[in-house]
């Protein structure tokens, strides 16, 4: 074998080794990214109720019905603080809304609770309020437009399939937002703030759609055609 042929074989072998190394590195990156997403969401693909479970549970204060308060504040005429019993005493509605996550899975259940529009009426929203922010007692948050709130579709649910809402699914109150992606369905809702601007919550700050409409692009970049 000539020296020239030997060099050629060496170059081909080096290229093959490099390609294998790059493929392995890319695969490792995908695995690490998936692991990171799963850990961040604390994802359990199947809960006891048969529905998917995501999110780390809130503090123990949220497990005490006596200590729980739902705060409604911001651009309102009067701030409101409601106990869970006071929320449940309001006229309720039911919905079999479909919960669809941006990562692909889907759940359907029967929800019962109080329309958000009805809750906000207790605080008398000011005319300049355009968005409503929902927060748990940790760091998760998302928002809906007042226009969507006025449709009467979203509710704060306290029952799931005819039984008390399980803690893993958002007890004491979970936002049910029909026709919106799952990241809009905030669990363990502790406060509602009315604002006069579009609000970037937990998923929205990562580039997901501010509107969260299931029949529209999932991200702001897709909306802009990027």
Provide an overview of this structure.
This protein is an alpha+beta fold and 226 residues long. It folds into two domains: 1-41; 60-223, Alpha-Beta Complex (Sulfite Oxidase, Chain A, domain 2). Helices cover 26% and strands 21% of the residues. It has five helices and twelve strands. The protein has helices spanning 3-41, 84-88, 116-121, 146-149, 220-223; strands at residues 70-74, 80-82, 93-95, 98-100, 106-108, 111-115, 131-135, 141-145, 155-160, 163-164, 174-176, 191-195. A five-stranded mixed sheet has the order 2-1-12-7-8. Strands 3, 6, 9, 10 and 11 form a five-stranded antiparallel sheet that branches. A hairpin with a 2-residue loop joins β9 and β10 (163-164). The N and C termini lie far apart (52 Å). 28% of the residues are buried. Mean pLDDT is 82; it is low at 18-48.
Features:
226 residues; alpha+beta; Sulfite Oxidase, Chain A, domain 2; 2 domains; five-stranded mixed β-sheet; elongated
Structure, briefly:
The protein folds into two domains: 41 residues; 164 residues, Sulfite Oxidase, Chain A, domain 2. Helices cover 26% and strands 21% of the residues.
How large a portion of the residues is in β-strands, by DSSP E?
15-25%
The sequence of SSEs as H and E is HEEHEEEEHEEHEEEEH
**Strand ordering within the main sheet:** 2-1-12-7-8
**Unreliable spans:** 18-48
Report the CATH superfamily of the largest domain. Oxidoreductase, molybdopterin-binding domain
What's the total count of β strands? 12
What is the CATH topology descriptor of the largest domain?
Answer: Sulfite Oxidase, Chain A, domain 2
- CATH first level of the largest domain: Alpha Beta
Named CATH architecture of the largest domain: Alpha-Beta Complex
Number of helices: 5
Give the overall silhouette: elongated
What separation lies between the terminal Cα atoms?
A: 52 Å
* Cα-atom radius of gyration: 23 Å
How much helix, percentage-wise, in residues?
A: 25-40%
The total number of structural domains is 2
Structural class: alpha+beta
């Amino acid at each position: 074998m000539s020296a020239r042929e030997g060099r050629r074989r060496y170059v081909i072998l080096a290229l093959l080794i490099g390609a294998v190394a790059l493929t392995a590195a890319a695969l490792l990156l995908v695995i690490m990214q998936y692991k990171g997403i799963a850990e961040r969401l604390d994802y359990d693909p199947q809960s006891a109720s048969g529905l998917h479970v995501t999110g780390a549970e809130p503090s123990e204060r949220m497990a005490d019905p006596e200590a729980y308060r739902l705060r409604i504040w911001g651009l309102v005429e009067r701030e409101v603080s409601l106990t869970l019993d006071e929320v449940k005493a309001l006229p309720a509605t039911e919905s079999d809304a479909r919960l669809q996550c941006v990562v692909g899975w889907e759940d359907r259940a029967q929800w019962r609770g109080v329309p958000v529009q009805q809750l906000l009426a207790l605080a008398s929203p000011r005319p300049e309020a355009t968005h409503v922010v929902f927060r748990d007692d940790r760091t998760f948050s998302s928002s809906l437009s007042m226009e969507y709130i006025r449709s009467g579709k979203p509710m704060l649910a306290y029952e799931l399939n005819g039984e008390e809402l399980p803690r893993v699914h958002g007890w004491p109150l979970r936002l049910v937002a029909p026709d919106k992606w799952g990241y809009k369905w905030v669990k363990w809702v502790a406060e509602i703030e009315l604002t006069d601007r579009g609000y970037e919550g937990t998923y929205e700050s990562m580039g997901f759609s501010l509107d969260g409409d299931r029949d529209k692009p999932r991200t702001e970049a897709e909306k802009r055609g990027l």
